[in-house]
Amino acid sequence: KKSLRQRAVGELKHYYNGFHLLWTDTKVAARMVWRLLHGQVLTRRERRRLLRTCADLFRLVPFLVFVIVPFMEFLLPVFLKLFPEMLPSTFETESKKEEKQKKKLNAKLELAKFLRETIAEMAKRNKADTG
């Protein structure tokens, strides 16, 4: 088990890397906006990255309140539990990303199952009506 000091250093590294990634994404997004303003067209991938970066910048505002106000960082886990999408995407851990992907996949599977059952029911009704 890690000591308190090791956990604190790990969290600081995590937030440093998150801010560094956000800064890099912001620079890339600024270049994309510059290209857009000069009439170039973005690819689908670039457009998604630009939207994600803009959303992250808007999420950063409430997140910075927790960083700037003294002792408010102790409430951050509570707010993250209440509002899980509040944290910018560059601050997410791999386990959180995998968990989110699993939830999306399960939702898609449930939707596909529902649609398959609905189509089967409609086919039975049409068969009964025509038969």
From TrEMBL:
Keyword Transmembrane helix: yes
Any Pfam family: LETM1_RBD
Main location: mitochondrion
Location(s), subcellular: Mitochondrion inner membrane
Transmembrane found in the keyword field: yes
GO annotation (BP), single: intracellular monoatomic cation homeostasis
Keyword annotations of the record: Membrane, Mitochondrion, Mitochondrion inner membrane, Transmembrane, Transmembrane helix
InterPro entries: LETM1-like_RBD (IPR033122), LETM1/MDM38-like (IPR044202)
Membrane topology: Single-pass membrane protein
GO cellular component, one term: mitochondrial inner membrane
Domain (Letm1 RBD): residue spans on this chain: 42-127
Molecular function (Gene Ontology), one example: ribosome binding
Name of the protein this chain belongs to: LETM1 protein
